[in-house]
Amino acid sequence: MGGSFNWPVTLECGDIQLRPIRYRDRKEWTDVRSRNSEWLAPWEASNPLPGGGLPDYRQMVRSLKAQAAQASALPFVITEWTPGFRDPVIVGQLTVSSIVWGSGMMATLGYWVDQQRAGRGIAPTAVALATDHCFGTLGLHRMEINIRPENSASLRVVEKLGFRDEGYRPRFLHINGQWADHRTFALTSEEVPEGLLARWLKTRPGGH
Question: What span, in angstroms and rounded, lies between the C-alpha atoms of 175 and 31?
Fold first, then answer.
């Protein structure tokens, strides 16, 4: 296992790429988010403080970059090589956050994917890429994903990847304007000695 934090980093598998989010992604990122506003709204993080709102795009990227500089987050966009486009297009976002070093050696992972591209294995591939990087290069031991019980699309992702269901967490995070229950799923490095991506590609329908 590794054990060194390196950032920025780009991770790839076939047509799927994870790369650092950039200020200049604003228009493309905003276009994708706007097109998916109804699809993502039920799972959108919100601010419980009175009058609290979410940061705008530039504030979000500034905060994520600061967290990466402190070795506490890996802020990626998910991109895909798409016919007719010169560069890979943004199809989602994945952030490894709350990285704990020392005796914990763990992190939390969150993601979203463009509804038009859902169900094609993009999210599981992206999660597997990021998890392998965290386990193999960063030397982390545990990856955790927290999901609303009603979010069937996201639940399918962790099911496909074999994350362990660790139970119910009442009113765990503030989502879409209210405190929302979540289920916690986790994986430790010992559970995927061959790598999560390799296991996923071997077991996915029509595996590569």
Answer: 22
| Confidence at residue 204, expressed as pLDDT on a 0 to 100 scale | 82
Q: List beta partners, residue 149.
A: none
C-alpha–C-alpha distance, residues 206 and 208, integer Å: 7
pLDDT > 70 fraction of the chain, expressed in percent and rounded: 97
Distance CA 155, CA 163 (A): 10
Q: Where are the domains of the chain?
A: 11-203
Residue 36 tokens, joined: 């998916």
Q: What is the pLDDT of residues 73-129, one digit of tens each?
A: 999 999 999 898 889 999 999 999 999 999 999 999 999 999 999 889 999 999 999
pTM across the whole model: 0.94
Tell me the pLDDT tens digit for each residue of 23-65.
999 999 999 999 999 999 888 888 888 876 778 999 999 999 9
Closest to 20 (Cα-Cα) out of 57, 64, 75, 72 = 75
Q: Are 128 and 194 in contact (CB under 8 A)?
A: no
What's residue 3's pLDDT? 67
Q: What value does the CA radius of gyration of the chain take, rounded to a whole number of Å?
A: 16
Q: Smallest Cα–Cα separation from 140: which of 74, 83, 61?
A: 74
C-alpha–C-alpha distance, residues 114 and 109, integer Å: 17
192 is written with which tokens? Answer: 């995927």
**Domain 11-203 class in CATH:** alpha beta
Count of CB atoms within 10 A of residue 184's CB? 18
